[in-house]
């Protein structure tokens, strides 16, 4: 670890101009390349107090042993030089996109006497017409195979072509009519070129006119009773339509554009690119990168554009590039793209319409790619074992925490405060053990008190179950029988229909595999989403219950620091640590589960109405009643006999509905319908009710969920 002050240049020696800088380690290897509008101001940021640097930046400057720079004239030149050096040196601390390979294009070699259709990669050649890029070469071959029956253009190599011309026998494609066989003079060079140009027109999106022409020829052939020719034309039309379905129109104005989306977390980022040509999605690309440096979304977009267009020129750079965030500053990148294309390029964020909708699709693909990458990484047994060992070592545990429970608090401005508990065993999710909590001890927003309450309730239940069953010796496979308990499941409701107040001995207490059920199984590690205050609250709750054999830690989002009780400084795991990745994944899952429950509760509260609490009235019959009367207002004015007219509603249910609506009647003075006079004032709400939304009163004390759902 080098001291940055040992190689820090004097501020006066650094030019105040645009340029590119390189950090090198003690072996003179380039470990980071960056560009700056002002080298002096940018480099000064690296040589401040180490405590103020982001952990990843701190790691880079302490690994480096020297810094050097190159002055350029403009920011565009700096962008170009930065890209060249990143390609040349492959610095370890720069953003690296995996799957950095040349993507395939469908190419038509119009520069040859007999144009050929083929898959091509790499640099573009003059006189060759390109379509794409495509995600896979097989996707190109699939499309070409469909089109060859209509446009039988040559696809063979130069050697095969010359051999067929020498022997006078075409290849197999010539025999099955998927090649016009110019090699044996079945068509002239001019006729074959015309076929190739029609193929290019079709691939460029000019499909309607050609299809109509084929349909006219098919009808003419049928009228002339040339049914075999009509059948061939019919099959040609079907083949073209099938090829068109593979390239569905997504932008109606025949736009040429690339859409770039980024999904990221604190450690990794996934980039997805959709290539739209002629209004159709012609290809898709994707990368995943480790965020080795402290980088924003805008900076990730800039790196992606460098990666995408660094070696491309001409038509490979479209007229429009749509991104989720603009690089700062945007002008140099836009000028660089314009220089690569040779004409103006629009770099912007889509705001509305089809382009914004398509960008949302690309964003979903990026998010899915990141999730898939993390899932594949987590599924590796060796990686999981290493992660658990690293967590145990960092926290000073005697053994790897085979069961980890993580807790998170969620609310919306202090309303609908809930908590989640997720469980990971052997580094994998165990969703059947997930639990949800409603905060009951107080009202309002206080994450620390909420965390204390949740931990207390969970482990008080653990002690209760442990007391019922008695202590069992290590290594025993079973525990004595004891009552089961209702628990909350991700879908809601009580397991086995059991009530928390069920009498002892109501149910068995062991799973089929002999393990303790539900809250009776303790974790080796409790993780809370938060920093020192939340960790202290969780530890205090365990201490109050007399539990001292369960470790506690917290993961703070801002810098991914791991906090442990009674310590002023956090535990900083290495950025590449599998242990940090595991803790982050546990924390993110707890957050997802909590916020999903909180949104469900909020939506249910907002959707609640006076019919929700009518006993025996399910969702189907409730909808039937509302549909019959058109609104709750009309239903409220209906008589019991009129309510009975609804299919499936008997008189007893109708009376219950009328009574519920009477209790939930909106605040209003009573009116004598005969005289129109206002009678004596009535209460705003019936006893035991509170004012609901839209002037409707709803009963108080009614649980918003079935009994036993929340624990």
Automatic annotation (TrEMBL):
Residues 208-243 form the UVR domain. CDD domains: GIY-YIG_UvrC_Cho. Residues 259-542 form the UvrC family homology region profile domain. Residues 682-711 are annotated as: Disordered. It is found in: Cytoplasm. Keywords: Coiled coil, Cytoplasm, DNA damage, DNA excision, DNA repair, Excision nuclease, Hydrolase, SOS response. The keyword DNA repair applies. Gene3D superfamilies: 5' to 3' exonuclease, C-terminal subdomain, GIY-YIG endonuclease, UVR domain, UvrC, RNAse H endonuclease domain. InterPro entries: GIY-YIG_endonuc, GIY-YIG_endonuc_sf, GIY-YIG_UvrC_Cho, Hlx-hairpin-Hlx_DNA-bd_motif, RuvA_2-like, UVR_dom, UVR_dom_sf, UvrABC_protein_C. It holds the Pfam family GIY-YIG. It comes from Streptomyces tropicalis. The gene is uvrC. This is UvrABC system protein C. GO terms for molecular function: hydrolase activity. Interacts with UvrB in an incision complex. Its main location: cytoplasm. Belongs to the UvrC family. The UvrABC repair system catalyzes the recognition and processing of DNA lesions. UvrC both incises the 5' and 3' sides of the lesion. The N-terminal half is responsible for the 3' incision and the C-terminal half is responsible for the 5' incision. It comes from the Bacteria. Residues 16-95 form the GIY-YIG domain. Residues 211-247 form a coiled coil.
């Amino acid at each position: 670890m080098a001291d940055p002050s040992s190689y820090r240049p004097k501020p006066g020696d650094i030019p105040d101009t645009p340029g590119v800088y390189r950090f090198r380690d003690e072996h003179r290897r380039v470990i980071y390349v960056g560009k700056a509008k002002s080298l002096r101001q940018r480099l000064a940021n690296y040589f401040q107090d180490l405590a103020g640097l982001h952990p990843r930046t701190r790691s880079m400057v302490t690994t480096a042993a020297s810094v050097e720079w190159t002055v350029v004239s403009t920011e565009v030149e700096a962008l170009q030089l930065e890209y060249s050096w990143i390609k040349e040196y492959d610095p370890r601390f720069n953003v690296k996109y995996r799957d950095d390979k040349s993507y395939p294009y469908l190419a038509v070699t119009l520069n040859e006497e007999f144009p050929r259709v083929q898959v091509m990669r790499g640099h573009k050649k003059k006189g060759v017409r390109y379509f794409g890029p495509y995600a896979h070469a097989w996707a190109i071959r699939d499309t070409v195979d469909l089109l060859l029956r209509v446009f039988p253009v040559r696809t063979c190599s130069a050697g095969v072509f010359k051999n067929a011309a020498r022997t006078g026998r075409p290849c197999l494609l010539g025999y099955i009519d998927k090649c016009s066989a110019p090699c044996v003079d079945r068509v002239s060079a001019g006729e074959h070129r015309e076929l190739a140009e029609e193929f290019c027109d079709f691939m460029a999106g000019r499909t309607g006119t050609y299809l109509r022409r084929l349909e006219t020829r098919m009808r003419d052939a049928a009228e002339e009773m040339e049914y075999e020719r009509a059948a061939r034309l019919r099959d040609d039309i079907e083949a073209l339509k099938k090829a068109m379905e593979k390239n569905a129109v997504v932008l109606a104005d025949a736009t040429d554009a690339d859409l770039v989306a980024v999904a990221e977390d604190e450690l990794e980022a996934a980039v997805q690119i959709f290539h739209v040509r002629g209004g159709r999605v012609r290809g898709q690309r994707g990368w995943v990168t480790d965020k080795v440096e402290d980088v924003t979304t805008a900076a990730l977009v800039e790196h992606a554009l460098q990666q995408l267009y660094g070696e491309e020129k001409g038509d490979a750079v479209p007229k429009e590039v749509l991104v989720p965030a603009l690089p700062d500053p945007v002008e140099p990148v836009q000028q660089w793209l314009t220089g690569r294309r040779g004409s103006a390029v629009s770099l912007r964020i889509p705001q509305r319409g089809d382009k914004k909708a398509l960008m949302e699709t690309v964003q979903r693909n990026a998010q899915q790619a990141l999730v898939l990458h993390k899932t594949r990484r987590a599924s590796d047994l060796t990686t999981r074992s290493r992660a658990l060992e690293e967590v145990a070592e960092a926290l000073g545990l005697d053994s790897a925490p085979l069961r980890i429970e993580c807790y998170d608090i969620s609310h919306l401005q202090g309303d609908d405060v809930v908590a989640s508990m997720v469980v990971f065993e052997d580094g994998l999710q165990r969703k059947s053990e997930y639990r949800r909590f409603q905060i009951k001890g107080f009202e309002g927003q206080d994450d620390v008190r909420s965390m204390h309450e949740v931990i207390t309730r969970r482990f008080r239940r653990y002690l209760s179950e442990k007391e019922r069953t008695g202590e069992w010796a290590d290594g025993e496979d079973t525990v004595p029988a004891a009552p089961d308990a209702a628990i909350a499941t991700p879908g809601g409701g009580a397991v086995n229909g059991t009530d928390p107040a069920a009498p002892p001995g109501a149910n068995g207490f062991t799973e089929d595999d002999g393990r303790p059920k539900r809250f009776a199984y303790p974790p080796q590690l409790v993780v809370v989403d938060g920093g020192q205050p939340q960790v202290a609250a969780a530890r205090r709750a365990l201490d109050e219950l007399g539990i001292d054999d369960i470790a506690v830690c917290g993961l703070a989002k801002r810098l991914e620091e791991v906090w442990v009780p009674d310590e002023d400084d956090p535990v900083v795991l290495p950025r590449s640590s599998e242990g940090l990745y595991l803790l982050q994944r546990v924390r993110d899952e707890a957050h997802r589960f909590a916020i999903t429950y909180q949104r469900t509760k909020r939506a249910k509260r907002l959707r609640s109405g006076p019919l929700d609490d009518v006993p025996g009235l399910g969702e189907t019959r409730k909808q039937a009643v509302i549909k019959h009367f058109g609104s709750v207002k009309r239903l409220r004015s209906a008589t019991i006999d009129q309510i009975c007219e609804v299919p499936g509603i008997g008189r007893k249910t109708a009376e219950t509905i009328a009574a519920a609506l009477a209790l939930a009647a909106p605040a209003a003075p009573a009116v004598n319908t005969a005289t129109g006079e206002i009678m004596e004032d009535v209460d705003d709400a019936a006893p035991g009710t509170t004012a609901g939304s839209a002037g409707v009163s709803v009963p108080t004390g009614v649980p918003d969920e079935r009994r036993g759902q929340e624990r």
